[in-house]
């Protein structure tokens, strides 16, 4: 006997961010939009590397 997926988790797991998620009101779209914004901000910020002026080689 094959169990039916009652909660649709396989569809949720396969879902990717779409720009329209910013305008939607459901929890999944809101979560994807928020996560996309956080990742985008982190990627754009990057890493600031500086040379230590006290170290002399």
From TrEMBL:
Top-rank lineage group of the source organism: Bacteria
Composition skew (Polar residues), residue ranges: 1-10
InterPro entries linked to this entry: DUF4025
Pfam families attached to this UniProt entry: DUF4025
Region of interest called Disordered, as start-end residue ranges on this chain: 1-23
Protein name in UniProt: DUF4025 domain-containing protein
Protein species of origin: Bacillus salipaludis
């Amino acid at each position: 006997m094959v169990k039916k997926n009652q909660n649709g988790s396989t569809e949720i797991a396969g879902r990717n961010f779409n720009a329209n998620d910013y305008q939607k009101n459901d929890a999944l779209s809101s979560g994807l939009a928020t996560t996309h914004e956080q990742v985008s901000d982190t990627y754009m910020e990057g890493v600031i590397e500086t040379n230590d002026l006290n170290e002399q080689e």
